[in-house]
Specification:
Blueprint: E1 13-17, H1 20-23, H2 45-48, H3 60-67, H4 77-80, H5 84-98, E2 102-106, H6 109-112, H7 123-138, E3 142-148, H8 154-160, H9 167-183, E4 189-193, H10 198-201, H11 203-207, H12 219-244, E5 249-255, E6 258-261, H13 266-288, H14 293-301, H15 310-318, E7 323-327, E8 331-334, E9 361-362, E10 368-369, H16 371-385, E11 389-393, H17 410-428, E12 433-439, E13 459-461, E14 473-475, H18 477-487
Parallel strand pairs: 1-2, 1-12, 2-3, 3-4, 4-5, 5-7, 6-8, 7-11, 11-12
Antiparallel strand pairs: 9-10, 13-14
Helix pairs in contact: 5-7, 9-12, 12-15, 16-17
Length: 494
């Protein structure tokens, strides 16, 4: 046994990540169309008390009110982001200063095809992303592109009910073919969809599905149809990508929900197993090209149906992924039956409800902080699927205090150092990990809560929840810490 095989390699891709809908802004500049996230307003904490689900899940009535200018809401944070559209050269220079080897970002579908139905892409959108990629390459930063980070053209959501319709598959393929034709010479790593499991958790958020307009027999059927259609679209994209270049790498990404049973009671253990299965079945499809057998029982018992044909089944089988990507923020605790200690995910961006875990600390937004769970999940995923892993998101959302141009975020350093240490231990365990892109490279609008107050970045952006501020960039203490981590290839953590 060569112990050099059990350490972080020199080729390891250290970096950070963002999403177009959270950083770019310029929502109506240079021909960009309206996305499904552009119409989600900011909800105050008082408003969130009366809502169910994630703040990014809005009703048809709310959506129509926004589009017809009949809403009292005037604050739409994702329309302005942190103005990466204007600051991208400055921001990428800061990433390079930290020593990034990779920068994960997404492309806004609506910059290339404003409604999704256009025959030809908008050249201004192509030129913008070509400039972003060129700026990365200038500093030796490898781009990792997410083709769809939730947002999609609102018109597709309106006319086809998003990913519930099979017509959306070809519209997406038209878009991804342009990306591959234009950028594959400079971009090796691709993720077709961000956190695919979000579509079952929040149908509008992940699939552009308007619940009041579903064509299926129930919302779960509509959501599973959307997931299947996304798998087919990704398989067609992978197939096309491999036809034009043999060195491209495609990754399937989910939000990893590492789950603990509340007790050693067999019923609790079984509940945890079922949660685990529903989280990783996406990887079963990605790694084997087939839906797992355990999913059949779940579909039958919940009266869920979705359409798939032989050609699609064959397509999935012939286009498996090269690596498995995931976001990891916390762990969840489940029991056979929920009790009064349930931690409600509503309003704080948490994906699912959870029982309390008395053994871990909690973040400002009520998220459990569990670095050991990170090591556990890395081991479990690699042991089961034997495909290289990529940590596409990992970070801490927190309140930052900006004083005299300084941000002392030792809490973020503590969180990330513990998780990176867990990563290095997982590598020593024999886990193959390609890279780590911390969430986030720079402050941005929170995906789950639509606020700037919940900050993740190594770089502070001077703007608040209502768009007030200078938008100037400032290095946090964590900026200098992460620079040292990268320079030492993960050996200098604490």
């Amino acid at each position: 046994m060569n112990r050099n095989d059990y350490k972080i390699e020199d080729t390891f891709l250290w970096g950070g990540a963002t999403a177009a809908n959270q950083v770019e802004g310029a929502y109506n500049i240079d021909g960009k169309g309206l996305s499904t996230f552009d119409i989600i307003p900011f909800f105050t904490k008082e408003e969130l008390k009366d809502r169910t689900g994630l703040p990014s899940e809005i009703s048809e009535d709310e959506m129509l009110a926004v589009l017809n200018n009949k809403t009292s809401h005037t604050n739409f944070p994702k329309r302005r982001g942190t103005n990466f559209y204007s600051y991208f050269k400055e921001d990428i220079a800061l990433f390079a200063e930290m020593g990034y080897k990779v920068y994960r970002f997404s492309i806004a579908w609506t910059r290339l095809f404003p409604t999704g139905f256009e025959k030809l892409p908008d050249k201004k959108g192509i030129n913008f992303y070509r400039s972003v990629i060129a700026e990365c390459k200038r500093y030796g930063i490898e781009p990792l592109i997410t083709m769809s980070h939730y947002e999609m053209p609102w018109v597709i959501s309106d006319q086809l009910n998003g990913w519930e319709s099979k017509e959306t598959i070809e519209l997406f393929l038209k878009y991804t073919k342009v990306l591959l034709d234009e950028f594959s010479a400079d971009v090796k790593y691709w993720i077709p969809f961000n956190e695919m499991n979000m579509t079952l958790i929040s149908p509008y958020h992940g699939g552009g599905i308007i619940p009041e307009r579903i064509r299926s027999n129930n919302i779960q059927s509509a959501s599973f149809q959307a997931v299947h259609n996304q798998f087919v679209a990704a398989a067609k994209t992978i197939n096309y990508g491999r036809s034009i270049a043999n060195d491209l790498q495609f990754g399937c990404m989910i939000a990893r929900l590492e789950t603990y049973a509340e007790t050693c009671k067999p019923e609790d253990q079984l509940a945890a197993l079922k949660e685990e299965q529903m989280n990783v079945f996406y990887y079963e499809v990605a790694a084997t090209g087939e839906y797992p057998r355990y999913l059949d029982r779940y579909l039958i018992e919940n009266t869920i149906e979705f359409e798939k044909n032989e050609a699609e089944v064959k397509l999935l089988k012939n286009n498996i992924y090269d690596f498995l990507a995931f976001s990891y923020y916390n762990t969840y605790v489940v029991s056979e039956k929920k009790n009064e200690k349930t931690v409600d995910g509503k309003g704080n961006g948490n994906l699912i409800d959870s029982q309390e875990n008395p053994y871990v600390k909690i973040s400002d937004w009520g998220w459990p902080i569990d670095s050991i769970g990170f090591r556990i999940t890395l081991n479990r995923l690699y042991d089961k699927f034997r495909l290289p892993l990529f940590v596409a998101e990992n970070g801490l959302g927190a309140h930052d205090t900006f004083e005299n141009g300084k941000i002392h975020d030792e809490y973020r350093i503590d969180y990330l150092s513990d998780h990176i240490e867990a990563l290095t231990e997982a590598v020593k365990d024999g886990v193959k990990v390609l890279g780590y892109t911390a969430w986030t490279a720079i402050d941005l609008v929170s995906c789950g809560t639509n606020e700037m107050s919940k900050r993740y970045g190594f770089i502070y952006v001077d703007v608040d929840d209502y768009g007030k501020g200078t938008y100037e960039r400032y290095r946090k203490d964590s900026f200098y810490w992460y620079k040292e981590v990268i320079a030492s290839n993960g050996e200098s953590i604490k």
